[in-house]
Amino acid sequence: MSKRFMIFTYGCQMNRYDSETITGYLTQEGYEPCDDPAKSDLILLNTCSIRDRAEQKVFSQLGRLRKLKRANPNLKIGVCGCFATRAGADIAKRAGGVDLIFGTQNISKLPELLEELETGSVCDTDAIEPDFTELAPIRRGGGLGAYVSISRGCDNFCTFCVVPYTRGPEWSKPSALIAGEVESAVREGFQEINLLGQNVNSYGKNSDAELTFGGLLRKLDRIEGLKRIRFMTSHPQDCGEDMIGAMAECEKVCEHLHLPVQSGGDDVLRRMERGYTTDEYLAKTALFRERVPGGALTSDIIVGFPGETEKDFEGTLRVIKEARYDNIYLFKYSPRPGTPAESMGDQVPEEVKTERFQAVQLLQQDISEEIHRNMEGSIVEVMTEGPADEKSSKQRDRGHLGGELLQISPPKRFVGRSRSNHRVQFTKGGPPPRAGELVEVEILRSGIRSLGGIAIPGRAVLADSGALEERAP
Ligand code: SF4
Fold first, then answer.
1. Which residues contact 301 (CB under 8 A, 6 or more apart)?
2. Is 470 or 163 the better-scoring residue by pLDDT?
3. How far is the centre of ligand 1, averaged over its atoms, from the C-alpha of 157 (Å)?
4. Is residue 384 within a helix (H) or strand (E), and if so which, with residue range?
5. 9-34 pLDDT per residue, tens
6. What angle do CA 217, 279, 287 make, to 5 degrees?
């Protein structure tokens, strides 16, 4: 009987992609995916190291898994991902019961590591050069979008970040291999691809890859059957006409740019070694606004970086107001072991971080609400994901008018994503849209996180009660 495995994935989309690749290798070695830890022969934790909390979660999970191991002594437990690369054998020393540890750069060695595992525990976190000669045996999860990594690692060494230490130097995958992977995802039925990299837009900079990132977008835009192209994450220092021009010209490239500013204080940006000033950053967001009208801009922001003054913080508020982000990922600075910022003096007290976090949160909520309210009355293209979850959608999504969609039996509410990456709930008469179907939706209501509307050619009016009801076109 073949062995069964389960993977718990923590952290970012890159980890999800890595888990799909690990799944590919394991199935190639005769393992079968399983969703019950008690029936698994191998359980892997694909970990994240971006914050201390993410690492602590791993130890809690290992504690639970140790109990399973007592019931099933043949169970093998493995830890991989960024935390495994950073801490290596120390994880096994601290947690006990761990049989296999491998780093983010050793995934392709999995067949050998499994063989070694037959005779005892294994730890391999030594970096190796990626093999870009052929496609990895990836086994993708469900959903409409497929992840495709275009590069690995990072050369930037921002002073707060562990990624260059856990994922190594930057390597760009050859564009022909990327195109092959996208084509194979399209053949499997995926309609949207998400290109992944720590800095997607520095693609091709440090290697023999023959294309720039803009060139790569143009190449992928020509792939038949593909409907949408997204990418994440872009670094401001590599953002310019090459990339934004391609976004403006390529039909399949979605109008959403995630461009992390991290801070609006020039001194803080210098100590973070981000490679740009706030004015240079805002010039790039202005270029995006000019070339990609109606596009959505999102960002990452850290408050409380060492030495962040009140003036620096006001700079962050100014950038948020000027850039007018659709949404942000907001973090309180937390020191990461081995990074230069960990030993910087002038750490900001926790209560100041909390105050600044809350001030940014409130400001951003107002901006998100206003942007979404201004979208009411517009028509957006939505890629249908499926029927809306009635209970949770009502709780989440009452909108600033307090309205909700009137249900007509049978329920005809669906959910999907717009090109600008907004979550849209909509009603639709007639046959229900299939998953992946593109539907034109008129936006009729909005909330901080999502939009609601009706599929065209239907029309809707706002009833006195604030509810929306369908009427004939
Ligand atoms: S660019 Fe900076 S923040 Fe992003 S992965 Fe590289 S070092 Fe980390």
1. 260, 261, 262, 263, 316, 320, 328, 329, 330, 331, 360
2. 163
3. 6
4. strand 379-387
5. 998 888 999 999 999 999 999 999 99
6. 35
Of ligand 1's listed atoms, the one at least distance from the Cα of 274 is: 2
Cα of 153 to ligand 1 centre, how many Å?
A: 9
Q: Residue 253 in 3-state DSSP?
A: strand
The DSSP 8-state label assigned to residue 258 in this structure reads E
Among 199, 262, 271, 305, which is best to mutate for testing ligand 1, by the most ligand atoms less than 8 A from CB? Answer: 199
If we measure between CA atoms, which residue out of 229, 232, 199, 206 comes closest to residue 217? Answer: 229
Q: How confident is the model at residue 51 (pLDDT cuts 50, 70, 90)?
A: confident
Closest Cα to atom 8, ligand 1: which residue? 161
Q: Which residue has the tokens 């950073």?
A: 86
> Closest ligand 1 atom to the C-alpha of 199?
1
Pairing of strands 4-9, 32-33: parallel
Question: What's the CATH code, domain 145-374?
Answer: 3.80.30.20
Q: Which strands make up the sheet holding 192-196, listed edge to edge?
A: 145-149, 192-196, 228-232
| Residue-averaged pLDDT of the chain | 88
Q: Answer yes or no: are the C-beta atoms of 43 and 5 closer than 8 Å.
A: yes
Domain boundaries, the chain: 4-124, 145-374, 379-471
Q: What are phi and psi of 286, to 5 degrees?
A: -65, -40
Q: Identify the weakest region by mean pLDDT among 49-58, 128-137, 150-159, 284-293.
A: 128-137
Q: Which CATH architecture has domain 4-124?
A: 3-Layer(aba) Sandwich (3.40)
CA-based diameter of the chain, in Å? 72
Paired tokens of 373: 């309210």
Q: Do domains 4-124 and 145-374 have the same CATH topology?
A: no
Tell me, using a 6 A CB cutoff, whether residue 161 lines ligand 1: yes
In the reported structure, the alpha carbon of residue 366 is separated from the centroid of ligand 1 by a whole-number distance in angstroms of 29
pLDDT at 278 over 60: yes
CB 183 within 8 A of CB 134: no
CATH class of the domain defined by 379-471: mainly beta
pLDDT confidence of residue 419: 96
Phi, psi (rounded to 5 degrees) for 151? -155, 170
Residues in the chain: 473
Q: How far is the C-alpha of 55 from the C-alpha of 46, rounded, in Å?
A: 11
- pLDDT (0 to 100) of residue 50: 80
pLDDT band, residue 128 (cuts 50/70/90): confident
Q: Which atom of ligand 1 is nearest to the CA of 167?
A: 5
On the question of pLDDT at 57 being above 80, the answer is yes
